Amino acid sequence: MLKFLKALSVFAGTIIGVGIFGLPYVASKAGFFIVLFFFLIIAAISIFNHLLYGEISLGTKGQHRLAGYAEMYLGRWWKGVSFFSLVFGIVGALLAYLIVGGEFLTSFFSQFLGGSNLIYTLIFFILGAYLIFRGIKSISQIELGLLGVFFVILIVFFVKALPFIDVNNFQTVDWRYFTFPYGIILFSLWGLTTVPEMKEILGGNRKLLRRAIVVGISLATITYLFFVVTIFGATGFNTSKEAMSGFYQVLGNGIINLGFVFGMITCFTSFITLGLVLKKMFWYDMGVSKNVSWLIACFLPLGLFLLGFKEFIDIIGLAGAVGVGLAGTVVVLIYKEFLKRKSQKMHRLLYLLPVLLVIGIFFEVFYCIFAK
To answer: How many Cα atoms occupy the beta-carbon half-sphere of 5 within 13 Å?
Structure first.
């Protein structure tokens, strides 16, 4: 039981991240029930995709990650596709953490010290890049503790917001934004990189791994919806893109400052964790030197930020639809070849997964280009 809880905590702690701060804004644009609809569909897609990856991980000898499995079962070209999908998704996530972390830092400290958003974002980046360079290894343990703190703060937020929640906020639907939630929710429910770690924690126990995947994604879905109900229910169509500043307008100082502090810590630790992952991908998988890998991992998202890529919602939407969508498609293709080598055939219904993921990529790109 202890191993299961540890694996579940690692999985849920990885999934619940920066995406949560954009979900109330998505609900304010599309409508709560459209968001609920996409959560039900995408949670099912995510569960199936993670279960397939779990079977691949359990049934393949050796320690591998997605790019390694892609090369083993599909060839070097698909290894490149999987590597691109991971880099695209992680860089998008790092950029999102940089944007939102800088905003939280600004919202909290500018009350007392003044200063611009750019200054606080650069402070956030410099501290994070330094720790990524040093290769801090204990961040994951801090994140597990923060997950527990998050649930406590979420309950406090709900209790404080309850008198302000207006049920009328949940009744409006805007069909013009029907596809808007797709990429953001997909981004928010993805924890594929932790499946091999969960397998190791659980000692290769297939039953417990499957259970951890189903429970972890279900827990994240419930948590996200609870957060949407709390924030969007109280702020309605005044919901801000990163949730907290709009919530601030309703509840004022005090408890919201606690939210800003928590947001800063969450974004900062996750920025370091993902930065280390990206650094090691270039260093170990591509043979790039350690210092150059650090430069790419840290300065690529900063460069995009300085070039003006600051639309947090669009960034996580694209990172989810494109990065996660491609990775999910590769998983299904690997699973097909995995079964073929066992003289088994993949169920026809599973072919729907890559079809839906590819359609989602087109939806998100179309929205970003034409529906703004």
So the answer is: 4
322 token code pair: 């494109």
The more confident residue out of 63 and 155 is: 155
- 319 touches 183 (CB < 8 A): yes
pTM exceeds cut of 0.85: yes
For residue 29, give the nearest of 165, 215, 228 by alpha carbon: 228
Q: Is residue 194 within 8 Å of residue 17, measured between CB atoms?
A: no
Which residue reads 């948590």 in tokens?
223
How far is the C-alpha of 128 from the C-alpha of 269, rounded, in Å? 8
For 234-274, how does the pLDDT look when each residue is reduced to its tens digit (9 = 90+)?
A: 888 888 887 777 777 777 666 777 777 878 887 887 788 78
- In whole angstroms, give the CA distance from residue 336 to residue 74: 10
* 3-state secondary structure at position 196: helix
Tokens of 276: 């280390």
Structure tokens at 207: 């039953």
CA distance 90 to 367: 21
CA distance 164 to 168: 12
Q: Confirm if 59 and 224 have CB atoms less than 8 A apart.
A: no
Among the listed residues 30, 67, 370, the one whose alpha carbon sits nearest the alpha carbon of residue 184: 30
Q: What is the pLDDT of residues 199-239, one digit of tens each?
A: 888 888 888 999 999 999 999 999 999 999 999 998 888 88
Q: Give the DSSP H/E element, type plus range, for residue 45.
A: helix 32-59
Segment holding 336, helix H or strand E: helix 325-340
Phi and psi torsions of 174, nearest 5°: -120, 105
pLDDT in tens, 168-194: 989 888 888 888 899 999 999 988 878
3-state secondary structure of 204: coil
Q: Which residues contact 43 (CB under 8 A, 6 or more apart)?
A: 189, 217, 218, 221
